[in-house]
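Input.
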Amino acid sequence: MNPNPKIRFAIIASWTARSTSILSFLLLLHVMFKFLNKEELGIWFIIGQLGSFNNLLDFGFSAIVTRRIAILSVDKILNKDELATIISTSKFVFRFLSISTMFIFLLIGLLVIPIIHLQNTKITSVILSSVIVSVGYGILTWNGLWSCLLIGMGWNGWDALFQSVINILIVITQCIVLTWFHGGLVSLAIVSTAGSIGLRYIILNFLKGKETILLSVNRPINIVVIRPLLLPAFKNWLTTLGAFFIFKTDQIFISTFCGVSQVPEYTAVQQVYSCLYNGSVAFSASANPHVCRLWAEKRIHEVHKIFIKCSYYGLMVISFGSIIMLTSGNDLLYIWLGPGHAAPNLLLVIFSITWILEVNHVTVAVFSRATDHEEYSMWSLAAGLLNILFCLLFIKRFGIIGVALSTCLAQLLTNNWYVVLHGFRKLSLPPISFISFVGAPMLLYLLLSLTLANVSKAVISRISGSALGVPVSIFVTVMITTIFILFKSKRPNN
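Output.
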């Protein structure tokens, strides 16, 4: 079966979901900046960052179970009994992980809240909101099995659409609560937790309609089936732990050394790049289950073709966003967040370099790991520990610039080069193919777009005022991007 239609659907669905999620997030952030004080904003961003810790609390189990289901689903009739056994055993595992998640988040809240200095926010509302959010994260972990089954059985794309619908409903409700009812942290936490319950209901009912036969087969719990997955899951968990240390500790360092009031602006810019990153890796993430099947069937040339396309378009998205931020970032922040909210130009440069290289190596890692290969855990962990070390060295002297620089340097010294070279070897992909079809065109695109966008903005601003400079530079970047996309569509790849 040709996987391309399913990959295209998954990419379109993922992009649609991410676009609506990004727009709804930008709306929520705009409302939050208006109706919450800086301390409340900082606390909510910290809670959100700790939520990323939720990815650690399944101990790598979700990714490995998804991969195993994808491989077995190549012939789901023949492997029906093994699939049913994995599902029944995983139910027990995810229930245990769900309860553990709730208690761990409660413990983290009790440890983190006392060290945060608050002047305008009640400590009781912070504690209560952290408790409610802990319950919500436990429910999300409980949903994990059904997300694994949905993606592993080839229904990837639907998970993104369901998540998008829930996210939109959550954001709309949170905006109403903030604007009409003058709610605070507790109200935001309640709405967020209700969304986790709604997501579980939607996914489970979808699977009952699509995988009736598989879900109707009952098998007893058999831990023996899970044992071969434990070592890959542990390696996956170490990789995720390293990523957490790299990208999810910034707010903790800033709030501790620079004050909670410094968190919102940094987080706003970081979230813009994070949204661009999510849109960029949507290509490789959507192809992941199908790459698992293609690799199992020894269709390596097809894997190479899909990788080149995913890498090209993924880097195109993050490069396009970075160019917009570098040429017009502070103008857009002024429109979005209002006066008094700006980012240092050096911060935008560091973020752009960091996230472009991140998309590049993560795309390689996704394809390499789809071959059931988990070998990046030590490098990811080393990058995370280096990031923490650099933060401690740089933050007192350079402030938030030092935090961003720490992440960039830690990645440059580890993942940015090792994952790419090792991944090419694992995929049997000649580096010259990547340079020819992806690397060289992207470098040309970046240099050309940055130069023309800056020149056009400067010229138009001098002639007609600064108001027209931003849209003209964005238009120029869009036109160059369109040319490169059309060039790629006409050019045969390897």
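The radius of gyration is 23 Å.
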